């Protein structure tokens, strides 16, 4: 079983890659091979360029799909789902966002909802993860002995 990791040079996908370990069953998709993690198979491609994805997705059973936040995210996700279907991928695990919905109050939430819906309608096996918080973001909220932006224990903040 081969697993393709997208966004492999970023914080979240790097952690996913670390949790999987370095095996012959893991392939990473990167735009720049010189930035690829060591010890895994590397495929060079870009989710914004569907013509670059055939080789990356070939022979893959499962895809970890993480797209960069922004207005291009649904386009990149759509390209990945298309490439996965063409390659016979069985399952896509997509990182979405908490509160993703077509009526979400943020553009990011609405864009994620579009990509979630497209994946669900793709005919592929799928899992959507909607994390609420990342511990590594906490470290950026510390200045000296002060933690900024902490959550209230009762959820009121």
UniProtKB/TrEMBL annotation:
InterPro entries: Ergot_Alk_Oxidoreductase, NAD(P)-bd_dom, NAD(P)-bd_dom_sf
Source organism (scientific name): Nonomuraea pusilla
Protein name per its UniProtKB record: NAD(P)H-binding
Lineage: Bacteria, Bacillati, Actinomycetota, Actinomycetes, Streptosporangiales
A Pfam cross-reference name: NAD_binding_10
Residue ranges occupied by any NAD(P)-binding domain in the UniProt entry: 7-137
Transmembrane residue ranges: none
């Amino acid at each position: 079983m081969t697993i393709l990791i997208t966004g492999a040079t970023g914080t979240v996908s790097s952690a996913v890659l670390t949790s999987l370990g370095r095996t012959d069953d893991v392939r990473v998709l990167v735009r720049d091979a010189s930035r690829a993690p060591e010890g895994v198979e590397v495929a060079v491609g870009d989710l914004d360029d569907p013509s670059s994805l055939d080789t990356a997705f070939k022979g893959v059973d499962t895809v970890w799909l993480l797209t960069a936040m922004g207005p291009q995210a649904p386009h990149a996700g759509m390209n990945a789902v298309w490439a996965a279907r063409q390659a016979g991928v069985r399952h896509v695990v997509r990182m979405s966002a908490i509160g993703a919905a077509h009526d979400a109050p943020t553009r990011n939430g609405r864009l994620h909802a579009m990509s979630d819906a497209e994946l669900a309608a793709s005919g592929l096996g799928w899992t959507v993860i909607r994390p609420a918080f990342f511990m590594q973001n906490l470290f950026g909220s510390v200045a000296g002995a002060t933690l900024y932006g902490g959550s209230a224990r009762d959820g009121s903040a």
